[in-house]
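Record type: monomer structure entry
Structure origin: computed from sequence
Chain ID: A
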Amino acid sequence: MLYRIAADTVLVLHLAFILFVLFGGLLVAWKRGFLALHLPAVAWGVFVELSGRFCPLTGVENALRGLAGEAGYEAGFIEHHLLPLIYPAWLSIPVQYALAAVVVVVNVSIYGALLWRRRRRSDAGR
């Protein structure tokens, strides 16, 4: 039971990390301190997608599921609603490249908007 809870926790953390990679620039807009965390996370997310590697969180989750005696995913809430987001059946190398591009475009857009807003503020103060 504890291994299954741990595996589900890793799954939720994995989803949170993916969301942070994609939208963490919005946290940077709120608090600049997130920049030091977000840029490496984006680099890692793009690297994983372009290299075709699995995130280490996947291995941890699978190991915990094995220790819990699970051969596959059961139809619980976590598995039913979150697994398809993280591990879609249609995931392929071209799709991973597209996902990496989405991560880059979203983050360049967010950071571009932040820089534009910052520059506009500094120009207004002159």
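Annotation 1: The CA atoms of residues 21 and 118 lie 22 Å apart.
Annotation 2: The mean pLDDT is 86.
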